[in-house]
Amino acid sequence: MKQAKYIGMDVHQATTVVAVENANGKVVLETIVATEARAIIDLLESLSGSLHVTFEETTQAGWLHDVVRGFVKEVIVCDPRHTKSLGSKSDKIDARKLADLLRAGMLRGVWHGHTTTRKLKELVRAYETLSVDTIRTMSRIKAMYRGRSIPTTGHGIYQPGERDHWLGLLSEPGARQRTRWLYEELDHLRRLRREAKQAMLTESRKHRAVKLLRTIPNLGPVRSARIVATVDTPHRFRTKRQLWAYSGLAVVTHSSSEYEVQGPRVVRRRKPVATRGLNANRNPHMKDVFIGAAIGGMRNEPWKSYLESLTDKGIRQEMARLTLARKIASVTLKIWKQGDTFDPKKLNLTK
Description:
By secondary structure, the protein is α/β, with parallel strands linked by helices. The protein has helices spanning 37-45, 61-68, 91-104, 118-146, 163-168, 173-204, 208-213, 221-231, 240-246, 284-297, 303-312, 317-338; strands at 5-11, 15-22, 27-34, 51-56, 74-78, 251-256, 259-262, 265-268, 273-278. The protein has three domains: 5-104, Nucleotidyltransferase, domain 5; 116-206; 209-346, no CATH class.
């Protein structure tokens, strides 16, 4: 029977350092190949046995995942935050460490989704990037005026019909020209953002999951498209709590000084010192979607009544909003898995 081989790849822009170990942990091959599909495929085809491959999530990870998955038994794209090198570091050491962790079963894979949602993913990312760039440019324009103690309340500063007035308030020619360029940049970004949004919504209509999620109050076409593009499939999450953690809605507790000395014994404190907060290891896009839906739902039914029932129980407003965001996430997961439209009568919105 041919022995399994565990392959660690330290991927760079031009070259990839490869370390191959057998089932006993012995390094049977170390080499450097070009970061090109043909070179990597030739290497894999030259190896015998059951091949298991791992590399870190980087810019090339999605491309490399598609290249190697048809030639190996298992491919794991791992989170680099969990594989930081200790002590001496080099490309060969990193590749060997990845192979060691893969052989020991100590790697947790990063999700790389189905090809059916790939186009939607790219369009959603384009829309999100252009949205961030638009907001950044607007902030830079306001900073030009605030840096000169010129009040800039409201959105009139961005309106084309009022720009001559605002530019006239800048006495420095260089600052005036810089702000004029920023206005031109803002106009271009807004146009591209509208085009990206329209393309994203057009593509999202081809996905049944988006149609289902749009029936949930405050999950409009944009948020629904972002969820489907990011999550890809609801079956990634066995329970709602896993989705909460993925979306940055899980409350984590950090405790300290849990024990104290009472006479000759060491005993556990009844109320150990603890700090609470939301988990930092999260998908920021999903957190933005569910928190935004919760903020919008505070004014609309059925979420408004649900939020009021929470505050009536004495729950603080910020915790009530978090609970509402978690409820929307739970409903999203349930609707998506069941393949049914939203019906408040079928869901318990009182808990």
